[in-house]
């Protein structure tokens, strides 16, 4: 959590290897590997996932083809057999049900004509397909109505089971009421300035960032 412009989204993009950013110092390790020495696609194949704050549209690419390509790239990286279209549909169906998504999503192009809430659901569907070990969700609650937030939170809670890591970026207590964090970190000017439990988010909701400085 942190004010707008504090560096939260910048951190996420650096971790996944966004080409607009250059790392000039420091290091990051993921599963024992030096993250900054890996290409963005290598980071994704190894199990690092970022749900973007503003997902882009990809005209001309069907959601089904995109999801199956993601899935098979991840499976190949783990030494598993690729799924053909029929096998993939069987793999995908329970994930659609868990997210309460209409199967018609699969026939549409990636995010093309999607509402803000539909784009966020689609991002979580991508996460479910990738089965990533570390997921970064950048304001996944943005643009969601109450029902959509409940469905997305339910899916995220299912996906975080086991030893999988989850980093949430949010401004709102309502998301943390549905997805209970182990820790809350406050970022300011690119630095983590405070860490604690969910009570920090409650204090922030009641008194704003000024209340945390005391």
TrEMBL record:
Q: Which GO terms describe its cellular component?
A: chloroplast
One Pfam family from the record: ABC_tran
The chain positions of domain ABC transporter read: 1-139
Q: Which GO terms describe its molecular function?
A: ATP binding; ATP hydrolysis activity; ATPase-coupled transmembrane transporter activity
List the PROSITE patterns: ABC_TRANSPORTER_1
Q: State if Nucleotide-binding is listed as a keyword.
A: yes
Q: Would I find Iron-sulfur among this entry's keywords? A: no
InterPro entries referenced in this protein's UniProt entry, alphabetically: ABC_transporter-like_ATP-bd, ABC_transporter-like_CS, FeS-cluster_ATPase_SufC, P-loop_NTPase
Keywords, alphabetical:
ATP-binding, Nucleotide-binding
One GO biological process this protein is involved in is: thylakoid membrane organization
At the top level of its lineage, which domain of life is listed?
Eukaryota
Known PANTHER family for this protein? ABC TRANSPORTER I FAMILY MEMBER 6, CHLOROPLASTIC
> Per its record, how is this protein called by name?
ABC(ATP-binding) family transporter (Fe-S assembly/SufBCD system)
Natural source organism: Ostreococcus lucimarinus (strain CCE9901)
């Amino acid at each position: 959590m942190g004010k707008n412009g504090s560096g939260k989204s910048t951190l996420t993009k650096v971790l996944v290897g966004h080409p607009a950013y250059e790392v000039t110092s420091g290091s990051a390790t993921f599963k024992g590997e030096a993250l900054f020495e890996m290409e963005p696609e290598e980071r994704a194949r190894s199990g690092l996932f970022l749900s973007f704050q503003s997902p882009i549209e990809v005209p001309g690419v069907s959601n089904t083809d995109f999801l199956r390509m993601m899935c098979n790239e991840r499976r190949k990286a783990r030494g598993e057999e690729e799924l053909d279209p029929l096998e993939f549909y069987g793999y995908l169906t329970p994930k659609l049900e868990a997210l309460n998504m209409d199967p018609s999503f699969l026939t549409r192009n990636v995010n093309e004509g999607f509402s803000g809430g539909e784009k966020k659901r689609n991002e979580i569907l991508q996460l479910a397909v990738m089965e990533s070990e570390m997921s970064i969700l950048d304001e996944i609650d943005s643009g969601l109505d109450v029902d959509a937030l409940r469905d997305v939170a339910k899916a995220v809670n299912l996906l975080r089971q086991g030893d999988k890591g989850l980093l949430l970026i949010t401004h709102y207590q309502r998301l943390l009421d549905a997805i209970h964090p182990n820790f809350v970190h406050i970022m300011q000017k690119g630095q983590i300035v405070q860490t604690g439990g969910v009570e920090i988010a409650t204090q922030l909701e009641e008194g704003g960032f000024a209340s945390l400085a005391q």
